[in-house]
Amino acid sequence: MGVAVTGEIVNEIPSCAQIHRSFADGPNVIEVADLTKVFGTITAVDHVSFEVRQGEIFGFLGPNGAGKTTTTRMLTGVIPVDSGSVRIFGYDIRTEPVRVKQRFGVVPETSNAYADLTAWQNLMLMGDLYGLDRTRAERRSSDLLETLGLSGRRDQKVQGYSKGMKQRLILAMALLHEPELLFLDEPTGGLDVQSTQMILSLLRTLNAGGTTIFLTTHNMEEANRLCDRIGIIRSGKIVVIDAPERLKAAIDRVHRIEVSFDRVVPADALARLDGVAGVSRTGDKWQITAENPDLAVRSLVAFSRDRGAAILTLNTLAPSLDEVFLRLTGEEERS
Amino acid sequence: MNPAAFRQQVRRAWAIARKDIRIYYYKGPVLIFGIFMPVFLFLAFFLGGRQLPLAFLLPGLVGMTLFFTSTAVSPAIFPWEGQARTLERLAACPITIEAIVLGDMIASILFGIGVTTVTILIGLGLGLPLLHGIVLGFAVLLAACCFSGLGMLLAVPPTNTPSNIMMLSTLLKFPLVFISGIFIPLDQMPAWGLVLAACSPLTYFTDVVRYAFSGGHYFPVAVDIAVLAGFALVFTAAAMYLHRWSMPRRI
User: Fold this and answer.
1) Would you give the distance in Å from CA B150 to the centre of its chain?
2) What pLDDT digit, counting tens, does each position of B176-197 carry?
3) CB proximity list for B107: less than 8 A, separation 6 or greater
4) What angle, rounded to 10 degrees, do the helices at B133-154 and B54-70 form?
5) What are phi and psi of A138, to 5 degrees?
6) Of A34, A164, A289, A297, which sits most exposed with the smallest number of CB within 10 A?
7) Which residue of B has its CA nearest to A73?
8) Among A213-217, B43-47, B148-152, B229-233, which is the least confidently predicted range?
9) Interior CA angle at A237 toward A233 and A241, to 5°?
């Protein structure tokens, strides 16, 4: 059951905070256990296990050659599983592939609409392959082309499309049958800002309507902004799975806080505050290190009130997801 | 709706066939090949210096036309789609590999029958009487299935380079033409030639067509039909089974 997609909806994208997420208690849509794929002597995917819950946006990250695309292809039934199991909506992808594929949509890594067909013909082909009746396929196609800014080019052959237009068309092809689950493999790789924003906005809208999303990406910022949980894969093995903010918090036991006051305050007074491990000054700002950022911030606020020194700025400087990624994949590589 | 149900999969196979016709067959060069091939074959053999009677020539020409057209495009579709990365799109859709193969075969069958009809019409236009039209129609349909199945079988090697498949296809197709009683009547062949001829499905089709136009034949018509049906079943089943193995290797 997907969300109805119209141009109006995309222009009224809810913010992440507005989206109520109830997936934490929802059923698992994807259940992967000990998934393994071997090409010759290379184990591309090595006993990978994870679950994706209903309504979740799950980011699947990893460096080039880590096994992201191979994993996604096994999940979508494009290549066979060597060992382990993949259950989607409770069905085994190996024994009931057609029934499972009917319920999800796929945006593969590379553009693969038929270049000799028009956008409309590509969509009608998808409608036929998903068993949609012609009226529904035409209505959905018109809506999606309008939403994705392609309605003016619907009768042009895809070979004349830009990369961004092709990618938007492929997304439309994946959404035509209103899937409950969407797999996207690098959906915004190499796209211009307009196409990227259009696709990301549509993904948020779809997710707000209940669509579960499995997103493979290299783009840390994209994953950070979109995903509820992130799985990082390295050399075919899952390194970690957690929420982006928890991942950032987990890699640094010592957090940094940047604070400035409207008047001079003594360094030693700051250093004695509960939760503060160290203090240094840069310009008019204090750099505080803290093992417990919550306690340190509370102490700083209390200090400000007691001393009558108003806080001008207060920032917690968490590591970026890029740092998390590099740290985790680097550690894995060393081990 | 159960998407895996037989009827649903046949509908989706038909969608694949229409896609193939639109993309691979409904092209100027392919259509020109389809129309000119039988015309040139007639010019080469009928107006040439061998002075062979039309009643002998036409069955061979009909056989060659159907054989070449039904196997002309179908072997290259999988490699083309693998190269263009559209195969991954199909693999992710709720359609079985068997239905994809069937769809490719349907397009090939329709193309083969269409072009072969042109050849038959030329023969009729030149005054050759058709004695057994229903038998001919049934044999053309059966042989088109058989040759399309062969075409799909030729597409099994998991390469995404169409020229490799076309080379393999040519290596197999041309020798078959020379051992199938098209240029040398079966009753004039040596014993070893007959053994080879018996291995070629084209032999049986040419024999039926000869019966349809002249009443003469080497094998009993029922044997021709049964063997053609057997080849069609074996080629189709083998193609579907082997593509299950090779298709993931193209992606």
Assistant:
1) 7
2) 888 888 878 888 889 999 999 9
3) B16, B17, B18, B20, B21, B24, B25, B73, B74
4) 40
5) -70, -40
6) A34
7) B92
8) B43-47
9) 50
